[in-house]
Design a protein that fits this description.
The chain has 195 residues and is mainly α. It has a domain of 129 residues: Cytochrome Bc1 Complex, Chain D, domain 2, CATH 1.10.760.10. It is 55% helix and 0% strand.
């Protein structure tokens, strides 16, 4: 291939890139994409967001080691209380009707009583760091790793619980959220940035 042919091909490639960037810029700044939570994404955007989220969580959770005591009844009990107070409004619970917030979220929050395909490490990372543009809060800003692992311990049991068993698990939890957090060491700014 001659030098002028290579220059021509390079010019075409640069031209295509500039044109695509110009079209993307016009679409973005023109507000053409509807971001309303009551309108689903296009298939491509939904696939892209799902793929980016799944790969990001998987990659970042890869080095996290789960504690050996996730089966500890006290840990599961504490997690049940935390789940009831912090999670059930969006993720629901066995026998729970859909809430106003769970119906209004898009993408919809997974109903965790049906189980997930996440590993405990991926659940931990997701609870701790949250998910951008999904409504999933970063609980690591206000809750230490012990409490987050308590929630993960409970999530391991949740899919097998009947509505009555769920209510019993929540009743077995410490009295309230403040009681669960009372003995936790104070969070330092930046603690949530690790893992």
């Amino acid at each position: 291939m001659k030098k002028w042919e290579r220059a021509g091909i390079a010019g075409i490639i640069v031209g295509v890139i500039v044109a695509v960037a110009g079209i993307a810029g016009a679409l973005i700044y023109g507000g053409f994409y509807n971001v309303a939570a009551d309108r689903p994404h296009t298939r491509f955007v939904y696939w892209l967001a799902d793929t980016v989220r799944d790969r990001s969580v998987e990659t970042r959770a890869a080095g996290i080691k789960k504690p050996s005591n996730l089966e500890d009844p006290q840990r599961i009990s504490a997690g049940a209380g935390l789940y009831a107070e912090m999670c059930s409004g969006c993720h629901l619970a066995p026998g729970m009707e859909k809430t106003e917030i769970s119906q209004g979220l898009y993408p919809r929050a997974p109903e965790l009583a049906q189980g997930t395909d996440l590993t405990p490490a991926e659940e931990f990372w997701t609870i701790k760091h949250g998910i951008k543009m999904s409504g999933m809060a970063a609980w690591g800003k206000t809750h230490n790793d012990t409490l987050i692992w308590d929630m993960v311990a409970f999530l391991q049991k949740l899919p097998a619980l009947s509505p009555a068993q769920y209510k019993a698990a929540v009743k077995s939890a410490p009295e309230d959220h403040d009681e669960m957090m009372r003995d936790m060491p104070a969070m330092k700014s930046g603690d949530a940035a690790h893992n």
